[in-house]
């Protein structure tokens, strides 16, 4: 019998101090690996200490599931899968957009027309001295790209004159179009775009602007954005209203870290989440994001309160987690469409326990995906696509996998969540 392993109680501070002591004696690449191992062990210890962590959570962390093609999944499990039709296996053409950008792609560039100067339309040709020159429809195009700071500053030095007798001071007038406010509206727009549109943190923008000679503290950036946020509040409310009228609604959430979240005294929740709600309809797409203690289903419930009466029931698309389902009143109807990719993943996870049954499901789902690809390629309208899917895809799995095998398979899939 092996002796019990000695348990060392080491704090996070001791581990960080140990890493710093061994850092000079290791190459940078090796030190990075050692540091990753230590941080991974620390994270693993915290997860094991958490009573809500399951064995399945640990498996996903240590052995992340790669959603490969059905043939690759079956081959890895030692099963022989069906070959796709030759027409399906042909290589897809590359999407457009590769290569150099033409001048027309620079829609935000400043356009400068440069005349020839020495010649005008109708002048005699200096080359042959016989013909007349005329203006061509397409000029020669030259694109020049220059660098600049995201935010620039201009210092106006207004001259002041003082009377040596009475002491009165005369100051030059501010140039036309220059206001007294230090930060223009365009500065607030750029900061908000960089932060919330491009994901640049305030402190990174602070370091960038500081290196370019323009001080802009992160706290100041927040104050600028906060002041203008009230101005766009009506637009935000209108987006929520418009999103509530969508035909297809997608919702999901993920955990988010914040320094502090003010909660109601009766609120016993500890998590903080960012929910995304995507709404689509012919001609437009709207994406909404909410950060706070609410889950995606609760946020979707609040959005649907603005839905106009009399509209057809929208389709709600998400995975099958209960926290994504909204709690609606009886007069509100939704068509639920759970994510097929999430369902397929459950069969991949139990493939080794039920190889034949799972192989049939995975191959049948492959046919569903191929039918969907055909519908997209032919750009079928929704009604035609529904009929096509109902004819070629619907019910194939349910008809062939039934009885005790399906019941055992369903039980095993659900038991993996425990």
Q: Largest sheet, described in full? A: 5 strands, mixed
Return the structural class: alpha/beta
**Order of strands side by side in the largest beta sheet?**
5-4-3-6-7
N-to-C SSE series? HHHHHEEHHHHEEEHEEHHHHH
Please state the second-level CATH architecture of the domain at 233-259 and 270-338: 2-Layer Sandwich
Straight-line N-to-C gap:
32 Å
Gyration radius (Cα, Å) is: 32 Å
What gross morphology would you assign?
extended
Beta strand count: 7
Assign the CATH topology of the domain at 233-259 and 270-338: Signal recognition particle alu RNA binding heterodimer, srp9/1
Strands, helices and their partners?
Elements (H helix, E strand, L loop, with lengths): L11 H11 L5 H22 L5 H8 L7 H7 L9 H4 L70 E3 L6 E3 L13 H13 L4 H10 L6 H12 L3 H12 L3 E8 L17 E9 L2 E9 L3 H9 L10 E4 L16 E4 L1 H10 L5 H23 L4 H11 L3 H5 L2 H13 L3
Parallel strand pairs: 3-6, 6-7
Antiparallel strand pairs: 1-2, 3-4, 4-5
Helix pairs in contact: 1-2, 6-8, 7-8, 12-13
Give a short summary of the structure.
By secondary structure, this protein is an alpha/beta fold. Helices cover 41% and strands 10% of the residues.
């Amino acid at each position: 019998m092996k002796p019990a392993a000695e348990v060392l109680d080491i704090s996070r501070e001791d581990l960080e101090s140990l890493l710093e002591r061994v850092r000079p004696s290791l190459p940078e690449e090796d030190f990075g690996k050692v540091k990753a191992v230590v941080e991974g062990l620390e994270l693993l210890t915290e997860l094991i200490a958490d009573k809500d962590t399951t064995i399945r959570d640990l498996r996903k962390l240590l052995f992340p599931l790669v959603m490969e093609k059905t043939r690759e999944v079956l081959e890895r499990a030692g099963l022989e899968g069906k070959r796709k039709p030759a027409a399906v296996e042909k290589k897809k053409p590359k999407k457009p957009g590769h290569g150099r950008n033409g001048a027309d792609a620079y829609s935000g560039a400043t356009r400068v027309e440069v005349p020839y100067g020495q010649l005008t339309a109708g002048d005699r040709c200096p080359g042959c001295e016989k013909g007349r020159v005329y203006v061509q429809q397409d000029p020669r195009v030259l694109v020049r790209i220059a660098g600049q700071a995201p935010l620039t500053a201009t210092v106006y030095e207004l001259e002041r004159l003082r009377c040596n007798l009475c002491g009165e001071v005369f100051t030059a007038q501010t140039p036309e179009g220059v206001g007294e406010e230090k930060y223009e509206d365009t500065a607030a727009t750029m900061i908000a775009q960089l932060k919330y549109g491009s994901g640049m943190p305030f402190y990174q923008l602070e370091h960038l602007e500081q290196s370019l000679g323009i001080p802009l503290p992160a706290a100041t950036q927040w104050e600028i954005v906060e002041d203008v946020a009230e101005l766009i509040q009506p637009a935000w409310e209108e987006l929520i209203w418009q999103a509530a009228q969508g035909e297809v609604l997608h919702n999901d959430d993920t955990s988010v870290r914040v320094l502090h979240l003010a909660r109601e005294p009766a609120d016993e929740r500890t998590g903080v989440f960012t929910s995304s709600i995507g709404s689509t309809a012919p001609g437009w797409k709207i994406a909404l994001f909410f950060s706070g203690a609410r889950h995606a289903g609760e946020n979707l419930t609040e959005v649907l309160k603005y839905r106009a009466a009399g509209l057809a029931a929208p389709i709600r698309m998400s995975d099958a987690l209960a926290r994504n389902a909204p709690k609606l009143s009886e007069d509100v109807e939704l068509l639920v469409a759970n994510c097929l990719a999430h369902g397929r993943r459950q069969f991949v996870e139990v493939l080794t326990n039920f190889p034949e049954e799972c192989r049939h499901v995975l191959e049948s789902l492959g046919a569903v995906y191929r039918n969907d690809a055909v519908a997209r390629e032919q750009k079928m309208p929704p009604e035609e696509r529904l009929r096509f899917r109902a004819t070629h895809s619907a019910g194939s799995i349910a008809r062939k996998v039934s009885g005790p095998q399906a019941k055992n398979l369903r039980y095993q899939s659900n038991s993996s969540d425990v």
